[in-house]
Amino acid sequence: MQVRNHKGWIAGRTLALIAALALSSSTAFADAKSKVVILATGGTIAGAGATAANSATYQAAKVPVDKLIAGVPELANVADVRGEQVFQIASESFTNEQLMTLGKRVSALAKQDDVDGIVITHGTDTLEETAFFLNLVVRSEKPVVVVGSMRPGSALSADGMLNLYDAVAVAAAKDARGKGVLVAMNDEIQSGRDVSKAINIRTEAFKSPWGALGMVVEGKSYWFRAPVKRHTTSSEFDIDKIEKLAPVEVAYGYGNMSDAAYRAFDKAGVKAVIHAGTGNGSVAKHIVPALQELRGKGVQVIRSARVTGGGFVLRNAEQPDDKYDWVVAHDLNPQKARILAAVALTATQDSKELQRIFWEY
Ligand code: DGL
């Protein structure tokens, strides 16, 4: 009896010791700062102008990532930060191959236990495309936050430093997990899926037709809604299983447009064309024959709209999508429709499957 009691006492003390150790280590972990990696690609946030008055005249993609980090010492208050220079380019020059390189690096880092969040500094011109692409193919719950600036760091009232501080604070925040790829600009936290550059020369440039997800103020995130479309861990696409994005081009719709762009895309060997149509993605009568020729060759025809900012292209409304076997891009603007088509066509050539994908992502 005595021995059993003695053994019971030892077992009880051992369990208590294990619990205490676990608590202390988890407490210690909770106190440890999040580890955030900043992947720099260029853009205005790395730009430099000749004088402080040059807020719009400058050269993008000049300042290296270590200098960006050194320029905001307060980053160390919100996270343990380190930087990698992936590219040093103006974002209008991004290629599909560079998107793939960036996506694979993000995916690899997200798998590392010593990485809690990732920030990508990026030019604002195509920032929305990169953010949406990563939202589709990076299978991780960890926060991935894309950030840019509208003024170079050399300008009066430069916005890049606070944008970078906000982006790192969001990437370090546990409540940013599982919300898809995010964009931090101008105090707002935007969905990488929804946001686009709506103004080309103001700091409040980025808008989401369905509203921002939240705000970040003095390093703290405040959330007001969450994404409902499939993304990251709920996506069927995986960057680690994609070799090459499909070639997809966009043609802008307007009165008196010709079908020359579509003929040229056909010669270039595209797998899909995005029609940035007038109104609800309308297609001029004299363009339909060219689109039907492309469709007959297996090229997908996807109707988006030049009108954006709070609506969506309705299937079989004014245009007989069923009859022509076309796909509608739903609420995605033409540049985002191109990204989704380029990814989706790595998995299917079926127009009905494509339509499902455009409705679900
Ligand atoms: N050349 C543009 C770009 O790299 C500059 C715009 C910006 O980054 O704000 O996207």
Automatic annotation (TrEMBL):
Enzyme class, first EC level, given as a word: hydrolase
Record domain L-asparaginase N-terminal: where: 35-226
Entry GO MF terms: asparaginase activity
SUPFAM superfamilies xrefs: Glutaminase/Asparaginase
Protein name: Type II asparaginase
List of catalytic residues: 44, 124
One Pfam family of this chain: Asparaginase
Keyword Signal attached: yes
Residues of the Asparaginase/glutaminase C-terminal domain: 248-358
Sorted UniProt keywords: Hydrolase, Signal
EC numbers: 3.5.1.1
Signal peptide: 1-30
Family matches, as PANTHER family: 60 KDA LYSOPHOSPHOLIPASE, L-ASPARAGINASE
Family named by the database record: Belongs to the asparaginase 1 family.
InterPro entries named among the record's database cross-references: AsnASE_II, Asp/glu_Ase-like_sf, Asparaginase/glutaminase-like, Asparaginase/glutaminase_AS1, Asparaginase/glutaminase_AS2, Asparaginase_C, L-asparaginase_C, L-asparaginase_N
